Amino acid sequence: MLQLEGPLTVTEVARRLGVANSTAHRLLAMLVYRDFAVRDEGRAYRVGPVLELAAHSQSAAARLRAAALPHLHRLVELVGESANLTVRTGATVRFIASVESRQVLRVGSREGMVFPAHRTTAGLLLLAELPPDRLDALYAAGADRPDDGPDLDALRADLARVRRNGFAVNQGRSERGVVAIGVRVHTPDGEVAAGLSVSMPSARYEKERLPSLVATLRATAEALERDLAG
């Protein structure tokens, strides 16, 4: 939250986490002690020297999250499943906004979580935008540790499929028993800003729904893009 949204007060953190102010204060105090956060003169907490995002400024991520939340809520109402917005930083992705389905059996909020990009729906969408040389460079550092990274040949085939289809389907890739479907969200200048996805228990996923889910995701992405342009 501090990385992507900028300074937050104890009260704001407590409300977002669903905890008491005293609990939020203890958490923030420990982050300060470990240099993950610092407290400014206005009694708000901001990101500390340990945490930096290379690819996404706090203001840009905050604007993207704020614009996306109403659309995520509408998407959940339309499809009845949890919805997420995700950005990429290097070989990882971070969920910057998440709205849970109201169904009893549902995929929980992923907001704030970080996953390897090649294991997530949005990660596949965002990696598919990279030229081949940048993809190779991204995983070159892990070439001597194959267990830590993807099989590049298999990943290239997956990304080619994503580019052809214009959407991604993830069946148990990042988490067993979960299916996620996603599309890209573009900035006004045509760059890919994020991945928009819905997640559901695999027991409830029906392949026959895929065309309608993709169509709804695309309509939602286009509406968000219009808001970003405005």
Automatic annotation (TrEMBL):
<dbReference type="InterPro" id="IPR050707">
    <property type="entry name" value="HTH_MetabolicPath_Reg"/>
</dbReference>
<dbReference type="Pfam" id="PF09339">
    <property type="entry name" value="HTH_IclR"/>
</dbReference>
<dbReference type="InterPro" id="IPR014757">
    <property type="entry name" value="Tscrpt_reg_IclR_C"/>
</dbReference>
<protein>
    <submittedName>
        <fullName>IclR family transcriptional regulator</fullName>
    </submittedName>
</protein>
<dbReference type="InterPro" id="IPR005471">
    <property type="entry name" value="Tscrpt_reg_IclR_N"/>
</dbReference>
<dbReference type="InterPro" id="IPR036390">
    <property type="entry name" value="WH_DNA-bd_sf"/>
</dbReference>
<keyword id="KW-0238">DNA-binding</keyword>
<feature type="domain" description="HTH iclR-type">
    <location>
        <begin position="1"/>
        <end position="49"/>
    </location>
</feature>
<dbReference type="Pfam" id="PF01614">
    <property type="entry name" value="IclR_C"/>
</dbReference>
<dbReference type="InterPro" id="IPR036388">
    <property type="entry name" value="WH-like_DNA-bd_sf"/>
</dbReference>
<feature type="domain" description="IclR-ED">
    <location>
        <begin position="49"/>
        <end position="230"/>
    </location>
</feature>
<dbReference type="InterPro" id="IPR029016">
    <property type="entry name" value="GAF-like_dom_sf"/>
</dbReference>
<keyword id="KW-0805">Transcription regulation</keyword>
<keyword id="KW-0804">Transcription</keyword>
